Amino acid sequence: xxxxxxLPAILETGEIRPPATAEPGFIPSSATARELRAGIELxxxxxxxxxxxxxxxxxxxxxxxxxxxxxxxxxxAARRASIADYVVLVAxxxxxxxxxxxxxxxxxxxxxxxADSAEDALRMLRRLHGEGGxxxxxxxxxxxxxxxxRLAIIGVANEPARDRVREMLRSAGLTTKVAVYPPWFQxxxx
Length: 190
Fold this sequence. Notes:
Layout: E1 2-3, H1 7-13, E2 15-16, H2 31-38, E3 41-42, E4 45-46, E5 51-54, H3 60-66, H4 76-80, E6 86-90, E7 101-103, E8 114-115, H5 118-130, E9 139-142, E10 146-147, E11 153-156, H6 159-171, E12 178-180
Parallel strand pairs: 11-12
Antiparallel strand pairs: 1-6, 2-10, 3-4, 5-9, 6-11, 7-8, 7-9
């Protein structure tokens, strides 16, 4: 997930960069959350030096954002932003490159377990899938920037956002599929 305001910089560089090296733009996470992630090392780099992806389009943190960005993870800017101003960037795990690490929960939370080999990652995914929706808690952490042309799809909330993103992609010479899928942008049903 990213804010539309960040998309021009992403498209200009042609890659999704880790928070530590991305051009500052719209920052939905709180300073506290960023500091915590910067202080946690994983495989020779901090969490802020990895590109995070949710394992599900209904991820817990994304659901928090859709439901008003309450809590310590979110900035005041995130609380004020319209959920329709976000995009969901979807990439298959296979394109996230070598050094990919999976987390079975928030990577910065105590007790989170990690998988850094293909066998362990597959085992973790099977376990999470078998736990009835536990994929919503996990993260995939790429160790290097992820090329935009490797994205499978960009999900948006409505047609105006789709048109805007398509124009940005066209200007960047990219043909990534853009789909309007409102359920990804609505609060979870209780």
